[in-house]
Design goal:
two-stranded parallel ribbon
Amino acid sequence: VEDPGDIGSVKNSVTSDDAKVQKRSFTKISPSAKLLIPEHGLDASSLQASGPYGTLLKGDVLAAIKSEKASSRSSSHTEKTSPSFHPQTSPAVSQGSNLELSDSFEDLPNTQIRKAIARRLLELKQTAPHLYLSSKKHNIKVSVNDIVIKAVAVALKNVPEANSYWNVETEEIVLFDAIDISIAVATEKGLMTPIVRNADQKSISAISMEVKELAERAGKLAPHEFQGGTFSISNLGMFPVDQFCAIINTPLAGILVVGRGNQVVELVIGRNEIPAVVTKMNLTLSADHRVFEGKVGCAFFSALCSNFRDI
């Protein structure tokens, strides 16, 4: 530097940056979050993680982006303020309103038609007593497979560690941001896996309609409709198959297979232990042990069985 006195400030700057890196608030990061950080020029050390085990999720990065945009809009609005600008007071303000106008604002001119529409809508809302009715369509035929998809999706939401994969390069567990269920479907071209995106947020009837539509187009799906997913399900319950095992579709960490339902006689709790005929089906989970350690696997199955009991 030209001035020796500036050396101290340079040293302080470097020390400050090192401190920021050391104070990073997260220990793991999801793939989508990792892509968003450099794309939007964010400072990773300032991001707060909300995921399990200190994992930085996509939602954490999006929240930071939203906060930064709001901050920039606020500063931009302040810069536009001009002391020589004298806004006109609207009639509503001049008639005794307590509304205080800021020093600067921008008027957006409206057409006469839009003004008339606005007045008419306000008049209708104020003068007509509104009655709101809604209806839900019932008697929608859903399959056991649709119920399984929903039950699995909710179980993954309750046990987020099961909705993850093993990153071979970093040798770490990475949590998925969304719950996207891949369904194994046999087609003339071979086995396809159409995906029900955000299955935990959809009703069973909505899942049913989407699965039917995807199955009909199974041989003609676009790549994004069958590539990806966070968890797999393979159901052979419509065939005389009681139980089977499936190969994990890596990099996913698990695939749940469903056998057919069989009627058995057993003592039913809550009926004074009176024998009754009940229908039971076998579920088998093929899991990547690097992700599904014993505790995670048991927690997932516990949540899954609870969902089936109270569907």
